[in-house]
Amino acid sequence: MSSVDQLGRYFGFDEHETDFKTELIAGITTFLAMSYIIVVNPTILSAAIMAGGSNGTTTINGAEYTANEVFQMLAITTILASVVAMLVMALYAKRPFGLAPGMGLNAFFAFTVVLGLGIPWQTAFAAVFIEGIIFLFLTAVGARKYIINLFPKPVKFSVGAGIGVFLLFIGLQEMQLVAADPATMVTLGSIAQNPAAALGVAGLFLTLVLWARGVKGAIILGIFTTAIAGWALLFADVASANALAPSTLLTESGEVSFDAVTSPHYDITPLVGAFIDGLTNIDTLDFWLVVFTFFFVDFFDTAGTLIGVSQFGGFLDDDGELPEIEKPLMADAIGTTFGAMIGTSTVTTFIESSAGVEEGGSTGFTALVVAILFLISLVAVPVVAAIPAYASYIALVAVGIMMLRGVLDIDWQDPAWAISAGLTVTVMPLTYSISNGLAAGIIAFPLMKTAMGEHDDVHFGQWILAAILVGYFYVSTSGMLG
Fold first, then answer.
1. HSE of 313, CA atoms in CB hemisphere, 13 A
2. Could you report the per-residue pLDDT of 95-147, keeping only the tens digit for each?
3. By CB distance 3.0 to 4.6 Å, which of 88, 308, 346, 384 could disulfide with 159?
4. Considering the domain boundaries, does residue 482 fall inside one?
């Protein structure tokens, strides 16, 4: 039996009606869609760790480190935490989902907890560690599965479409097709005056045309073609580096530089175990409010992503539940705990996994491919960093459009379904949060059912969950967290 056949038997290729090539392409697609985190996460977390330093350096355990060294340490911990989580996802859960330190959660870590509340970054890592331990326990005893199964059906069946709109919104902004506007919040970007936006539009339509024609690997081809075209125009002096080069490779003078990623700093010992010091320096109220917020946002972001991407991939059963959901939940619990121990923020399942699922990824081999590519990126960061946002975010826009088909699973004639699902779909992009969209839909469902005289259809646990989420909204909007 060949090695490919052995892989097929282990991951169940025949059972899922897939094959090695399909899973490989799906893994590469997911990696390309989420690889930006390798650069973006350390950029965000660096702001927290460098906050107490001066003259471009910071002191950790008595030694001074430059901003570039801190950035590279965080890039390494980002990669390692992602790899560990995805290996659990691939080999234990056998699902095609990618994981990494989550966007939003890293910004909350850096700008709200450390820079806003003034909590030491070591203590912030301690909060993430405690969150991870809680997740491990709740996952092991089945509590997370129980809570997720309490989600009302209209919420479960609308998550996919909500994530689709969210992906569209994120992707269109990053590709500069949608721009900020002081009067209307957002408006159409200056595409005709912006080479990056124009290339993004061309690459997006190329991707959609290839997808419409059934070309396998359409998203990969779209990303690579757009990136190559951008670099070709850049080197041909058709456009400036400021216009087309990735921002991660630009110097303050607007020139392209690979210095920050071609001389890797692999010593991460200053960050490893920093959370232990953080446990000794705790302001009880602030600390547990931070743990509470990390916990809730991660819990519902992960739940929403798993359900939404699973709906998109056809993995849910008739009740809208993902069989053996506790296994993929264990992957993010282990990833979060391990990540906090080595020095990175909360690890969660990525909505970009839907890009690989769209390419046919349906087994753990897809996640294994993503993990391997993340590991390879330890020595190939320049390749990842060289993919500009207007190319990589094509995946989000294309997949966002494809995920809108999820609205067909919603019973729009039932007021409880329409209101609960409608809030789930719209609140996600408008508040830039999967968890907020889920919470809005979960709170609305029992209220609407009761208003319709159908309170017997509401599980008691759904009332408890709705009440807890009202508390979450109060904490997150009351200014208690700065």
1. 29
2. 999 999 987 778 778 877 888 778 889 999 999 999 999 999 999 999 988 98
3. 308
4. no
Number of domains comprising the chain: 1
Model confidence, pTM = 0.79
Asked if residue 59 belongs to a domain, the reply is: yes
Distance CA 170, CA 165 (A): 9
The DSSP secondary structure of 21-73, one letter per residue, reads HHHHHHHHHHHHHHTTHHHHHHHHHHHHHTTT-BTTEEEETTEEEEHHHHHHH
Of 183, 196, 208, nearest to 233 by C-alpha is: 196
What's the one-letter identity of residue 46? Answer: S
Residue 470 lies in a domain: yes
Q: What is the mean pLDDT of residues 149-162?
A: 88
- In sequence order, what are the beta bridge partners of 184? none
Q: Does residue 191 sit within a domain?
A: yes
Q: In the Cβ-directed half-sphere of 413, how many Cα atoms lie within 13 Å?
A: 0
Asked whether the beta carbons of 48 and 73 are under 8 A apart, the reply is no
What's the 3-state SS for 275-288? Answer: HHHHCCCCCHHHHH
- Domain range holding 368? 3-477
Give bridge partners of residue 266 from the DSSP assignment: none
Identify any residues that bridge with 178 across adjacent strands, giving them in sequence order.
188
- Give the pair of three-digit tokens for residue 32: 């390309």
